[in-house]
Design brief:
This protein is α/β, with parallel strands linked by helices. About 20% of the residues lie in helices and about 25% in strands. The protein has three domains: about 5-155, Spo0b-associated Gtp-binding Protein, Chain: A, CATH 2.70.210.12; about 160-330, P-loop containing nucleotide triphosphate hydrolases (Rossmann fold, 3-Layer(aba) Sandwich), CATH 3.40.50.300; about 355-430, GMP Synthetase, Chain A, domain 3, CATH 3.30.300. The protein has helices at about 55-60, 170-180, 230-235, 250-265, 285-300, 320-330, 370-375, 385-395, 400-405, and strands at about 5-10, 45-50, 65, 85-90, 95, 105, 115, 150-155, 160-165, 195-200, 205-210, 240-245, 275-280, 305-310, 355-360, 365, 410-415, 420-425, 425-430. It has a six-stranded mixed β-sheet, sandwiched between helices. A five-stranded mixed β-sheet has the order 3-1-8-5-6, with no helix packed on it. It binds guanosine-5'-triphosphate and magnesium ion. Magnesium ion binds near residues 171, 172 and 211.
């Protein structure tokens, strides 16, 4: 398992209700309206924390909710705001909408906070609804329901060192030699189809290595196994680029892989890199020497990274490579985050203004953020509030939509928390 995955449910707090109240003044039968507003419901947010390394917490607890807002009071007293709920997640957590699979957030900065379920707004008290013609309004709003979301969290693999290279260059063999990983090794391309993770230890220093499946030309267009594993490199601190000394075109291989990195995310080219030329046991010592000077000359033209000549089979040169890796990692104290291609999508807001109508066992169900919220905030026993909902419904085009779906008198309609009955081209709110 290379990802930690957790599915969780969030519920933000509902807003408190607004209240109806009138000022009590001496010698006056009824003072002006003084019903206060409800408090806002607490929101649920995630906060990225680099000291966490797993989503295990969300495997045991799956339902989270923030506090509801308090109701308003007399004397224009505002209800108490619900307390926010901030959940800490490991840096590198991706947040998906579990129903649509849409990536909502990608927490890639330490202490970054994203709100995943918004608390409901408090309903207005009747003090809000006084006008010159209505000095004694009975109108109040209920609190807006807090948002609910069903999310899937995925933790990106975080390795200190990523081993990359063309297929069969010996990446899996190398990780098996330097770490505790026991990957499949074979002499055909694409032996590795999912990344292998291992922990390497050199003296008292340990680091995490990932063996990334082989890359070929046009991987970024989906060739071979494609580039879907390249995101594992984004968070690694150091890249070990492995080449095969038996390849007919070593410099070409190097350029091909670098180009794939560039096409995926050009910022990857700036990652600190070490180049290792593998399988030196397969050719004569004298030939290794001549290859060395030739490659040093040719590769120098395109990169300044140090070259290491190794054999994962005889272990020749492996220690030197490991010492170099440790030295580099110690210099690179903090992970180098590649933020250039950070994807952040806001939750779809398309239902904010519009609505959709569906029919389920004879009941017409209206979905659409604005209408649902307003309906839920309307107390069905409050005539003024119901009248306002009716006005918004008739202006929204909902009646036409229902008629297009062949609604007839007496049919039930559900909008948010409210139920209505269709009658004579209108919706009568019944509950
Ligand atoms: N002689 C020799 N053979 C090696 C060396 N390293 C790897 N090999 C062989 O090269 C072949 C490919 O090795 P792998 O480690 O599976 O290569 P890979 O880069 O992980 O390949 P993919 O997973 O397909 O991308 C295997 O037959 C290994 O035994 C080496 O240093 N010397
Ligand atoms: Mg492999």
């Amino acid at each position: 398992m290379f990802y930690d995955i957790a599915k969780i449910k969030m519920k933000a707090g509902d807003g408190g209700n607004g209240v109806v109240s009138f000022r009590h003044e001496r010698y006056k039968a009824k003072g002006g309206p003084d019903g206060g507003d409800g408090g806002r419901g607490g929101s649920v947010s995630f906060k990225a924390d680099s000291s966490l390394g797993t989503l295990a917490f969300f495997i045991t607890k799956k339902n989270f909710s923030a506090e509801n807002g308090g109701n308003g009071g007399r004397n224009d007293r505002h209800g108490k705001n619900g307390e926010e709920l901030i959940l800490e997640v490991p840096l590198g957590t991706m947040v998906f909408d579990n129903k649509t699979n849409e990536l909502l957030y990608d927490l890639s900065e330490d202490n970054e906070i994203v709100e995943v379920a918004k608390g409901g707004r408090g309903g207005f008290g009747n003090a809000h609804f006084a006008t010159s013609t209505n000095q004694a309004p009975q109108m109040v709003e209920l609190g807006e329901p807090g948002e609910e979301s069903e999310l899937r969290l995925e933790l990106k693999l975080v390795a200190d060192v990523a081993i990359i290279g063309i297929p069969s260059s010996g990446k899996s063999t190398l990780i098996s030699v330097v770490s505790n990983a026991k990957p499949k090794i074979a002499d055909y391309p694409f032996t590795t189809i999912i990344p292998n993770l291992g922990v390497a230890a050199v003296d008292n220093f340990s680091f995490v290595v990932v063996d990334v499946p082989g890359l070929i030309k046009d991987a970024y267009l989906g060739k071979g196994l494609g580039d879907k594993f390249l995101r594992h490199i984004e968070r690694s601190r150091l890249v070990v680029h492995l080449l095969d000394i038996t390849s007919p075109d070593i410099v070409g291989d190097y350029k091909t892989i670098r180009n794939e990195l560039k096409m995926y995310n050009s910022a990857l080219l700036k990652k600190p890199e070490v180049v290792a030329i593998n399988k030196i046991d397969t050719i004569e010592k004298s030939k290794v020497k001549s290859q060395k000077s030739k490659l040093e000359k040719e590769l120098r033209k395109i990169t300044k990274t140090p070259l290491f000549f190794i054999s994962s089979v005889t272990k020749e040169g492996i220690n030197n490579l490991l010492f170099k890796i440790v030295k580099e990692l110690k210099l690179l104290k903090r992970p180098v985050f590649v933020t250039e291609k950070k994807k952040v999508f806001k939750p779809a807001e398309r239902l904010l203004r519009s609505f959709e109508i569906s029919k389920e066992s004879g009941v017409y169900i209206v979905t659409g953020r604005r209408l649902e919220r307003l309906a839920s905030q309307t107390n069905p026993d409050n005539t003024e509030a119901v009248a306002r909902l009716q006005r918004v419904i008739s202006a929204s085009g909902l009646i036409k939509g229902l008629e297009r779906m062949k609604i007839k008198d007496g049919y039930k309609i559900k909008i948010g928390k409210r139920t209505g009955r269709f009658e004579d081209g209108r919706i009568i709110i019944i509950a």
